[in-house]
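User: two proteins, same treatment. go.

Assistant:
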Amino acid sequence: MPDATKVNIAEDFSKVISTKRTGVLLFLLMALSIFSGECIAAGSEKPGVLETVLKWLPLIFTGFLLNLLVSLVSMTLGTIAGVFLGISQMSQIWAFRKTARFLTQFFRNSPWLVLVFYTILVFPFEIKLFHSVIPFPSWIKATIGLSLPVMANTSEIVRGGIQSVPVAQWESAESLAFSRFKTMWLIIIPQCFKRMIPPWMNLYAILTTASPLISLVGINDALALTRAALEAEGGRIDLLLPMYASLLILFFIYCYPIAVWTVRLEKRYAEKT
């Protein structure tokens, strides 16, 4: 058997082992949380921990879906704005280049929670349009707040991807009388697109795990509903670990495949370059 084949088989086997190990750790975490809760609740007449967790899990899952919606919309808005901002960083026009770099560095180095609070306060709660009053939901404002750091990080991903293309590509396009616009969109961007996918996916995973920040501004996401469920149960101490462990597992199940796929794409594109 060739050495390359042996290495690929070993890597695939290690990935399977790693995935199974992670699944076992999650199972043990949940089992330990439920067991500790059952020990604390032993001798009381209250419903069991597992029964209570399963009762509230559908409600928590609806909040989790809101987290996913916020992360998807924020990622879409931030990506669209970030692509143009990243290209503007490479502009030959001084004003565009300096403005794009300032916005990128400002929002990239600003705390996400502060941006969420700022957008909640700066935007109105309702918009008056002619004789109609249109409500402006808080989750939309929080989505805009999260899209700002996504925009800045996407801008850096685009800038880095463009700069990774050899200068000879620019020179060859210039010798063929391509304009800078055509060179950028027809030659440079297609070459660096694959290189930008892994960090972009990693950014989305980070955004998803950061989406519970919106609960701090009064939005009923998964974290807020988990706290509400605990309060509805009278603040039972035995439910703290199991309830938050179930929330942790929900996010992990969604984000872990993204992380695995990101690593695989990075290796695949590294082998081709």
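Protein 2:
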Amino acid sequence: MTHARRAVQWRQVAKTRTVIVGLGTVAAEHLAKLRWIDDVEVAGICDRSTSVAEAVAARFAVGPVFTDYATMLEATRPDAVHVLTPPQSHRDLVLTALEAGAHVLVEKPMTTSWREYEELRDAASQADRMLVECWNYRFMAVVVQALDHIGRGAIGVPSTIDVSMGVNFSSGAYADRDMPHFAHDLPGGALLNFATHPASLLLAVMGSFEGVRTWRRRVGEAALSDDELRALIAGRDLAGTLTLTSRSRPPDLTLRVRGTEGTLDVDVYHQRLLIGSTGMGLGRIAGSLRDGAARLRSAGAIAGRYATARNDYFEGLRTLLEGFYAAAAGRAAQPVTTAELDEVNRLVHALFAAENQL
């Protein structure tokens, strides 16, 4: 075999080497989705707790295990790093990964301030490496489908957009007073740990924004930090609202876009998409019949997913990871552009800026 043929063959079988730092709950979702990507090899996992790291290694048949991040990077020389630790630690871990020549996928929120975000963005640009934030809901199939409908003019020209996310701060880790969750120490409290999700959906439609006014408060008597946020966001051509609240039961994530020719509603958790017409007469009746049929189909699909345990809230993470590693291998463009990262992170930090509070 000639040298050229051997080189081609190597490029066909070589895998992208990736490592994971931070082995909390979300790491299981990343490792589960990585199993489906054939050209990725998990070359190492890292956590400060040896017992946690060893348990994750055994569950997912990955390793070796490390408890020191620098040692892992030196030993594995990865092509990519998943940073899944609390946001307060992201800056140093991301910069170290970029300095080691790795692309970086980082959990939301990427940073605790806009200044830190700019630092990481510029460092990635200088290193010619990808920096991508985990917007798993933005890549859910139902959201991708909805954005396609909007782009094709299914509801005319969008005029308003409303995104709402219900989160549960009243039980579980967020309500533990003996061991308070790290998110309560973030600027703006635990709300900042979730704000990227609705922000990434809203700006997928709006594109950019020009102004923000926010009302934030603590509703639950037992809440350890603010647990409700409502914001009015002004874009150049349309306006939107964003809601994060602990009072929504059960927790949900919904998107509604009103346009000049109809409305589009997305229930992200239940993967349901409905398009309604604003027409009159027979056109409106036909639209209502289509809407009713769509609701029946959706109800059947939801029941089926719950009956078979296939309602995967992290479905979009797999799509995002596939895009990230295709880009790392030079087969595709970066799944989240730097311009998109700029706008979403600018909005997230604007939501908690003192000058924007009512």
